[in-house]
Amino acid sequence: MKMRWILATSILLIAMPLNTLAASQTGGGEITFTEGPQAIHDPESPETIVIPEDGMLENTGPLRLDYVPTLQFRVQQILAIDETYSPQAVNFIGDTSARAQFVQVTDVRGTGSGWTLSVCQEEQFKTSDGETLDGAELSFGASWPNSTVTDRSQEPTIFQDVIRMTVGETQTIATASPTQGAGTWSISFGNSTNNLAPIMDADGAPVVHETLGKPLYQNSAIQLSVPGRAEKVAGKTYQTELTWILSELP
Description:
By secondary structure, this protein is an all-beta fold. The protein is built from no helices and 17 strands. The strands form 5 sheets. A 4-stranded antiparallel β-sheet has the order 3-6-13-9, with no helix packed on it. Strands 4-16-8-11 form a 4-stranded antiparallel β-sheet, with no helix packed on it. A hairpin with a 7-residue loop joins strand 1 (40-41) and strand 2. The protein is elongated, with a radius of gyration of 32 Å. It starts with 39 loop residues before the first strand and ends with a strand.
């Protein structure tokens, strides 16, 4: 009998690695930020850009004051009794209605180191001839912050009590601790719902702005108290100077 041998063979395939480069090359990417254009935001609707009638401060730098208010107490009658006066509310060019006085702060330093806003009344209300409104006292109340920043933990701390000014003394308005106050913030004294009232003439009709054609309002959150005993000269304007101070935290 013949025997048949069957030889089975197998082939092993081994994958050999390709040669790799002995050197590498890196690329890169970069971006630079600028402070962006200066603009004033509606203190009650901060997404809206507005133009205050009295303009804005043309300040530059990553920590700056964009706007501070001018207090206009209008023409008043001479009275022999103690009286309190409220300033005309802020007016804007365009469709935005009157707002309470406010200060706008911008902090784009990117350091999160905080800031303090304060104000000093440099002198008593007086005329250009040096006649002083003795005993007059200016006060600010109903302060509150607003911003397009949605994280409210970042809002500065506001001194809610009524701030009564003393000539020559600096009063703190708001403080942003580290990690607070970044971006653009308004600090308002009152609001249009609770503190603004229309200014009426002697006949009980609303007084309208001469050029803007809008009703004028007064803001009860800011007050000037004048004692009846103070001598008042008819036809003369009494003025004071307020210095608003924005400083970095030490």
